[in-house]
Amino acid sequence: MLQYLSREQEIQVETWLSQLTLPEKISLLSGADNWSVAAVPRLGIPTVVVSDGPNGVRADRASSRRPAGPTNSYPTGIGIAATWNRELARQLGAALAEECREMGVDVLLGPCVSIMHSPLGGRNFETYSEDPFLAGEIGLNWVLGLQHKGVGASVKHFAGNDQERERMRVNVIVSERALREIYLAPFEKIVRRAQPWTVMAAYARLNGTYASENPWLLRDVLKDEWGFEGAVVSDWFATHSTANALNAGLDLEMPGPALWRGHHLQEAVDTWQVPEETLDDAVRRVLVLIARCLPGQVPPRPAAVDTVERRALAREIARQSITLLKNERDLLPIPTTVKKIAVIGLNANTRVTGGGSSFVKGLYWVTPLEGLRRA
Predict the structure, then answer these.
(1) Is residue 346 part of a domain?
(2) Which domain holds residue 54?
(3) What are the pLDDT digits (tens) for 81-137?
(4) Residues known to be catalytic
């Protein structure tokens, strides 16, 4: 029996699978659009809506079932990791799940547990640490908090996506020992102990083969060795082949409409490049994802996004993430007679959330200068 799936849900998945036509199966293996998975109305199989994260729910109209608008922007990954607080990470995951439910989002695209390998990595703020243990512990509890509330996680970017320069085609050369001890360790912990509903395959090539079509990475390690039961989804436009990717273990091509699936996959199945059992395994994993999302698919609730409790959580994470707020016991050599501290440079008013897929249009922001004044 699959973890986090009832016997009734398993029966539903197998019933769906037995009733699907080949074209319907193929349609489920690529996105319907940028933010959703295809539905099969004939069988009552609904769509699944995904949204960017992980430090907030991207509330644009396309990635949610309600009108766009500002949402809570929580401290970024590097901030929550700086707290060294597992319980806070779990509370953050739970809070994000509640907001996802209010917005009609089924899967939040996070957490990012890529290792901070390069100090120039443009998305280092989004992930947790250069320490695989810390990244694994914080990411694990974030996932547990999120999925306990009925929203799926998408642990990313699997694996070796630790720099932004040439990330679409860079070839990451790394030994198996270093991979297992450092780069794969956070993923392994989360998969074995939380069974995330999805894992996102990275853009990069790993030892010569794109992660999205790397059979050693996706099939041998993730699915067979670690026992991953969920769906492997590509990073957006990270799919590079039809048969090779599906045979390697990439279940869902995103976004849609399909570039490498669709009629290309139909041809690959017809010419025996993709065995029927491989196709059915991928379809089953997508159906499991849909079945897991079904209980939470209620009409978006018109709730107040900006609540006292959510502000308090964001503030507490920020407070615990600060390395030094008060100079107690003269930790810094600043005389007690000093009454003013100069804050110099652009960083006094720098942005407090990074760009790219983790950007969230926050309800409010407190700059470093404002925070120091209030402290």
Answers:
(1) no
(2) 7-296
(3) 999 999 999 999 999 999 999 888 999 999 999 998 888 777 888 899 999 999 999
(4) 235
